[in-house]
Write a structure and sequence with these properties.
This protein is α/β, with parallel strands linked by helices. The chain contains 8 helices and 14 strands.
């Protein structure tokens, strides 16, 4: 049984993630952490969630805090804290502002919960994952970000709808930046175990339209309802379940890579990784030439932004 801590639990994604994670049978304790001054809201969240647990028959010890020291003994710490993206704002516009917060948070967690797995949701998630890795002092396998997992699920849904098959029959991945330079892996996309380009109807697939839809999905949701909540919340719970269940599933998350993919690396970015109770382990890949080129450009972009943010952080300290 495990203790799961959610930082930024007063936000929409954080509180919905708490609800979805509470359905995971491996979770015995859950801590909701918010900033000082939000104690009443946190208390209300705990009471509301406790009512839902009672109605469902869930037995989880639930508590709240505004002190990061209370994260002690956590198995997984999920960080949803930060400034949310506004309509028309690029994820990378948030980079330095959120990086300052995460650097301080990661340092504290590194001291109070040295054995935890740190899971970043805060945007821009690839850059923020690198910041958390550096300032926590954790091993790379114990720090990862949501990355392109949700993007991959969005593409999977679009493909399933186009071919009129159950979504479980589709396997696909998007790697690279959680943002405009993301790279869909059509070479690794299958339907019912059949490579998609071996299906005659693939020739009519609106490939670019689908990728553009995935890229703008978050912005469209923000425009229509103010924030993305349910997609990220369920995606977070899937990854938590994969870790705590020691499932060894291969999912696409933001992780530090060395030379696993055509020697392109030394950056935190979305890649397929084997995930279990010991952490996140990137999977070596051989890609098609156009995919390699796209991934190289995505890595170049994220590496540049990460370096700029790290330099500013050092100057500010």
């Amino acid at each position: 049984m495990a203790k799961v801590t959610i930082l930024g639990a007063t936000g929409n994604v954080g509180i919905f993630a708490a609800h979805t994670i509470s359905e995971i049978p491996y979770v015995s304790d859950m801590l909701l952490v918010g900033r000082p001054g939000r104690e009443n809201f946190l208390a209300g969240c705990c009471r509301d969630l406790s009512d839902s647990f009672a109605a469902r028959g869930t037995d989880i010890r639930l508590s709240y805090s505004t002190d990061l020291a209370d994260t002690k003994d956590s198995d997984i710490i999920i960080c949803t804290a930060g400034v949310p993206r506004q309509l028309g704002q690029d994820r990378n516009d948030l980079a330095f502002e959120n990086a300052k917060l995460i650097a301080e948070t990661a340092e504290t967690i590194g001291q109070s919960s040295p054995d935890a797995i740190l899971f970043l949701v805060t945007n821009p998630v690839d850059v923020i994952t690198a910041v958390a890795l550096k300032y926590s002092g954790f091993q790379s396998r114990h720090v990862f970000g949501l990355g392109t997992h949700l993007d991959s699920m969005r593409l999977k849904s679009l493909i399933a709808r186009y071919f009129r098959v159950h979504v479980s029959e589709v396997h696909t991945r998007i790697i690279g930046e959680h943002g405009d330079s993301m790279v869909p892996l059509w070479s690794a996309t299958t339907i019912g175990g059949i490579r998609i380009n071996n299906l005659p109807t693939f020739s009519g697939l609106p490939v670019q339209e689908m990728v553009d839809t995935v890229k703008t999905s978050g912005e469209a949701i923000i425009r229509d309802k103010g924030s993305t909540v349910y997609g990220p919340g369920e995606a977070i719970a899937t990854l938590v379940r994969t870790i705590l269940g020691d499932e060894n599933r291969i999912l696409t998350v933001s992780s530090h890579i060395g030379r696993e993919i055509h020697g392109i690396g030394d950056v935190c970015i979305g890649v397929p990784a084997r995930i279990n109770r010991d952490g996140v382990f990137p999977v070596p890949l051989n890609l098609e030439e156009d995919e390699v080129a796209g991934f190289r450009e995505s890595v170049k972009k994220i590496r540049r932004i990460t370096a700029e943010v790290m330099e500013r952080l050092e100057e500010a300290r």
